[in-house]
Amino acid sequence: MSEVRFIHSADFHLDAAGQDDDGLVFLRRQALTQVVDRCTATGAQLLFLAGDLWDQEAVRRETLTFIRKELARVPKVRIFIAPGNHDAWGHNKTWTQEGWSDNVHIFSDFSFVELPQYKVRVYGAGFTSRWSASSLLPENLSLDPQWINVLVMHGEVGAPSDYNPMPWERLVLFDYCALGHRHEYELLAPPAKGGYPGSAAVTSFRDSSLKGCLQGVFREGTVHTDFYPLHGPLLQEMSLPLRGDESLDTLEAAIVNLQQSSFGYLTLRLTGRIAKRPPIEELTRRLQNPMLRLLDETREQRDYESLAKENSLRGIYTRRLLASEDPLAQEALEAGLDALEGEWLP
Questions:
Q1: CA distance 73 to 47
Q2: What pLDDT is recorded for position 219?
Q3: Which listed residue, 1, 20, 47, 246, has the most CB atoms within 10 A of its CB?
């Protein structure tokens, strides 16, 4: 093939701590959607995702479903993922679970995938824990110059590091290095080729730093890349946690306050465990704002008294937290019960 096009992205950090509070779920997810859309727009045959798709050892079931659906939208694009220190292979069983589309390859130990139709070999390795003081790049690499040799990896270049130190003299052997970990756009110094696209997603609604991905093409023995900025959304999504005892006037005032700090079209998710569903239709009628959409995502309030009587791990956990005088006990109780009831995947 005369040319092979690719997209290179990394560091989405989905499910990052605190993002529910200020609506970052939507912004971070939209970044992945834009990257996948960019594959279609450029006619890319390859997509390199260099780690930290999600931020914590556990990932929400709905987040994993979202990632898989997005990557499955481009079945003709070969996708290569090298798990990073946040979504490391070793503590994320989700990498090995069924449900990934056939076009996705996830690296664990250092290996390569051969794509004869493109004359490309894609090398990579994934983190197996939060840290890796030794390099995931083996010594004495021997690469066939008859192939286009690509590296997909998460880590730090050069100096000693707890995050997979990658010796520069090994990186120069590759025709392109699709790296992740650094959150700022940065190219490798010549003669090495490739670099870091930076974090694909914003960290807050006030984050004005440049976000984007690298798009490139292998052509006649050379590689050309350019940085493509991912534009911020005209849509915004936020959450409003409810206690269940708010009056209609109080709810209306809280929503109006959130609207004043938003831009564009606002989707507001009402969350929390409450005894009675919020009056969505009445609130919508009173607010009369065509740029606002209210979603009821509240759940039924838990009966702690009944849970505490259970002869189970959930019952033991509930009894201990109810008896605790720690001011964070209630929050810990809800989070723990969510985990026990399957809201989080290990």
A1: 13
A2: 95
A3: 47
Beta strands 120-124 and 111-115 are antiparallel
Q: What was the pLDDT predicted at 22? A: 42
Q: Pick from 81, 248, 63: which is nearest to 154 by CA? A: 81
Q: What is the CA radius of gyration of the chain?
A: 23
- End-to-end CA distance of the chain, in Å? 42
DSSP line for 135-172: -SSPSS----TTSEEEEEEESEESS--SB-EE-HHHHT
Q: What are the C-alpha distances in Å from 278 to residues 89, 246, 275? A: 41, 9, 10
Quick one: which H or E segment has residue 286?
Answer: helix 280-287
CB of 180 within 8 A of CB of 50? yes
- Is the model's pLDDT at 322 over the cut of 60? yes
Q: Please determine, for residue 147, whether its predicted confidence score (pLDDT) is greater than 80.
A: yes
Query: Which residue intervals of the chain bear CATH 3.60.21.10?
Result: 3-229
pLDDT of 203-219, one tens digit each? 665 566 788 999 999 99
Q: State the pLDDT at residue 342.
A: 78
Query: Of 131, 111, 132, 108, whose CA–CA distance to 121 is shortest?
Result: 111
User: Is 21 a residue whose pLDDT tops 80?
Assistant: no
How do beta strands 273-274 and 120-124 pair? Answer: unpaired
Highest mean pLDDT among 38-47, 129-138, 241-250, 329-338: 38-47
Tell me the pLDDT tens digit for each residue of 229-262.
Answer: 986 555 577 888 887 778 888 888 888 888 776 6
Considering only residues 94 and 314, tell me which one the structure prediction assigns the higher pLDDT: 314
Please tell me the distance from the alpha carbon of residue 186 to that of residue 179, in angstroms, as a whole number: 10
Q: Which two tokens stand for residue 156?
A: 């730090």
Which CATH number among 3.50.50.60, 3.40.50.720, 3.60.21.10, 3.40.190.10 corresponds to the domain 3-229?
Answer: 3.60.21.10
CA distance 256 to 279: 16
The residues, ordered by sequence, that sit 6+ positions from 335 with a Cβ below 8 Å of its Cβ are: none
The DSSP output letter for 93 is G
